[in-house]
Amino acid sequence: MKMETYKQTGEKAGTIELSNAIFDVPWNPDLVHQAVVIQQGNQRQISACVKGRGEVRGGGKKPWRQKGTGRARHGSIRSPLWKGGGVTHGPTAERSYKGKINDKMRKKALFSALSEKFRQNQVVVVDSLQIAEAKTKELAQILGNLPSGRKNTLLLLPDMRKDVIRASRNIPYLRTVQAREVSVLDVAAATFLVLPKESLQVLEKTFVH
């Protein structure tokens, strides 16, 4: 399976052979959805937390006697009926949204998402990605030359390119990830994938072999 590659200037540079194991996998929306939900749940932080009636201070003594006062009967000021009392059925720190997915399913979901991007012509392979210095303007110009344009883009790097990462920080529509660390959530959240030829080798080495 072949696809065209591009130079940084936007001109066509030739063709390259893609791995069928990565870019020719049937679309499986249920598996992709499951993998995305699990990853989002694992990233979720529990911030909202309230105290129940057993956790608030005070309330060890009955506020007033049971009968004879003319007021409603109460046993503790910790009751949810009282101001400052515990909260009924409120969010607690014991909640957990974490889930598990085995490696085989995770890789298959990733390959399915990558293959669908390829079928939708949303994958752009660059012959070589080099910038003279870590300047946002230079990287933005390169992206503007490519078929992806200035749209929601995920740039897969073959290794830790600090100059490219620094140049990408002020580009709102661009996110950079090393190819060996890419996830199905990264792919699903992007409209276009842009990757140098070296990144294809990293993908195959990391996830296939």
List the helices and strands and how they pair.
Blueprint: E1 2-6, E2 12-17, H1 20-23, H2 29-43, H3 103-119, E3 123-126, H4 136-145, E4 153-157, H5 162-168, E5 174-178, H6 184-189, E6 192-196, H7 197-207
Parallel strand pairs: 1-3, 3-6, 4-5, 4-6
Antiparallel strand pairs: 1-2
Helix pairs in contact: 2-3, 4-5
What's the architecture of the largest domain, going by CATH?
3-Layer(aba) Sandwich
Topology order in helix (H) and strand (E) letters: EEHHHEHEHEHEH
Q: What is the overall pLDDT average? A: 91
For the report, how would you describe the main beta sheet?
6 strands, mixed
Helix content bin: 25-40%
Number of domains: 2
Strand content: 5-15%
Q: Biggest sheet, strands in spatial order?
A: 2-1-3-6-4-5
CATH superfamily of the largest domain: Ribosomal protein L4/L1
CATH-defined fold name of the largest domain: Ribosomal Protein L4, Chain: A
Q: Class of the largest domain, according to the CATH hierarchy? A: Alpha Beta
Number of strand segments: 6
Low-pLDDT residue intervals, each spanning 5 or more residues: none
Backbone CA Rg: 27 Å
Morphology = elongated
By secondary-structure content and strand pairing, the structural class works out as alpha/beta
InterPro entries: Ribosomal_uL4, Ribosomal_uL4-like, Ribosomal_uL4_dom_sf
Biased composition (Basic residues): 59-76
Region (Disordered): 52-94
GO molecular function: rRNA binding; structural constituent of ribosome
